[in-house]
Structure formats: C-alpha cells, structure tokens
Specification:
The protein is α+β, with helices and mostly antiparallel strands. It has a single domain, classed as Roll (SH3 type barrels). Helix content is 22%, strand content 43%. It is built from two helices and seven strands. The protein has helices at residues 26-32, 83-96; strands at residues 6-13, 16-22, 34-41, 53-56, 59-62, 67-70, 74-80. The longest helix has 14 residues, at 83-96. The radius of gyration is 12 Å and the shape is globular.
Length: 97
C-alpha cells in the first residue's frame, strides 16, 4: 500500500528516474490508481529555499512542482520522510490550495 510521506524512485518518462514524496493518502491512491507526488530537488538545500519547499534531512521536496502519476510508475520504495517534514508538507499544501 502507498502512504502519504513515502519516498519512491519513480519513472518520469523517457528513461528518466526521479525521487518523489507521496502527498496523497492511501485511500485516494487506491481508489484513483494515481498518486500526487512532489519531486526531490538536487542541489544544496540553502540554494533551493522557498516557502513551497520542504527540507527533510539533506533532501528538499518541491511541493510547488507537485504532479500526478499512475501508481504503476512508482518503481521502488526508498523510505519515508520524517513526521515533522510530513506536517510541513501538509501545511504547505493547505497554503497552496
């Protein structure tokens, strides 16, 4: 089952793979067969600061770049963001929408 806060390696098309964090809950993912995700950005965290970006350890997730993917494009579970990062992600999503 795919849960909010899970980090996956995802197929982004044309042989490109990206790390993403899942933003939607497991019920939505199951019913829709899709997930809303935010990509992890590469680069030093200080260079990527934005009110729509969430830092989790050394990783920065761009909530403002969220996109929808078919669940079959999630290739490999790579972990989970911290509870604090998940709370910040939810706060940023409320502010964007």
């Amino acid at each position: 089952m795919i849960h909010s806060g899970d980090v996956y390696l995802a197929a982004a098309g044309q042989e490109r793979r990206i790390r993403v964090v899942v933003l939607t809950d497991s019920e939505f993912n199951r019913r829709a067969g899709r997930v809303i995700v935010a990509p992890r950005l590469d680069g030093p965290p200080d260079a990527i600061a934005s009110p729509w970006r969430v830092l989790d350890g050394d990783s920065v997730y761009a909530i403002d770049f969220m996109l929808s993917l078919d669940t079959t494009r999630l290739l490999e579970l790579d972990g989970h963001v911290s509870e604090a990062a998940l709370r910040r992600i939810r706060l940023v999503m409320r502010r964007i929408t």
